Amino acid sequence: MSVVRIVAFVLFGVSAVATATASDAVPDASREAIKASVKSCATGLERLLPGDYYFCAGVRDYGQKHDGRAMERFRDAAFWASKPAQYVLGLSYFNGDHGKANRPLGVAWLALAAERHDPLYESAFARAYLASSSEERAQADAYWRDLRKQYADPVAGRRARQRYLAEMRMIEAATAVGGSVFITGLSPPNGDAVGQFGADGDANRVGGGSSFSMNKLLSRAGDDYFRGMTGTVTVGEVQPTDLVPIGQVASRVRTTQ
After folding, report:
1. How far apart are the first and last CA of the chain?
2. Are 102 and 116 in contact (CB under 8 A)?
3. C-alpha 257: how far from its chain's center?
4. How far is residue 103's CA from residue 92's CA, in Å, rounded to a whole number?
5. Separation CA 50–CA 106 (nearest Å)
């Protein structure tokens, strides 16, 4: 299953679970559906888009009922600016799906997920914020100011984008003479191992064929991953922006609905 399809599936399945109350059990059908759909994750993707890889790993672990490990993987993905992961973390904390609810922390994660103005994430954040008390909103703002130091796009997005561009440059250099890129979990395990990319010389291989299709696939994956982030995905540097208090964001979303 492609990364895009994994994300679409999980946002449907996990969000349905996350809107349940803390006392509700996770439906076995949802677990089984996720388990059947996400059996493995492309380990080679970790070098280029670790946020996508760790999000997939979190989904896989969730489907296998390893909830604690899944939450760790979602936080790993959030460190690399994965908005779906930040969204899932926000819903989980707000509703107390994996322990005692922490509504302000959930609101803070949802605010981070919404910073690229995706309608789904913005709507979830606005609903959670407007359903919170004044005390919860103040605490959410404090959590958000702390979390953004590591997880907001000017930091985490920049980190992820630099990683992606560095790996893409190595792939392009390795295939400059016209070869095929084989990435573990994304490419068929065939072709001669005539080259490698990555600082640790891992199993990602360059074989003898056309590199055009794989480079196009990886470029499209990068475009999807960074869509909505300030700056451009392939050229130039990300321009950091000042984040406003999340109350102002909620007010703006409410007035536009």
Report:
1. 34
2. no
3. 26
4. 9
5. 23
Per-residue pLDDT of the chain (257 residues; tens, 9 = 90+): 333 344 444 444 444 333 433 333 344 556 677 777 776 788 888 889 999 999 989 988 888 888 899 999 999 999 999 999 999 999 999 988 767 889 999 999 999 999 998 888 888 899 999 999 999 999 999 999 999 999 999 999 999 999 999 988 877 776 676 656 667 766 554 444 444 444 444 444 444 334 666 777 788 889 999 999 974 322 223 233 333 445 555 555 444 44
Give the chain's radius of gyration (CA, Å): 19
Number of residues written out for the chain: 257
Report the C-alpha gap between 175 and 106 in whole angstroms: 44
Q: Which amino acid is at 49?
A: L
Q: State the number of CA atoms in the 13 A half-sphere of 240 facing the CB.
A: 10
> To the nearest 10°, the Cα dihedral for 222, 246, 122, 152?
10
Q: How far apart are CA 120 and CA 11, in angstroms?
A: 10
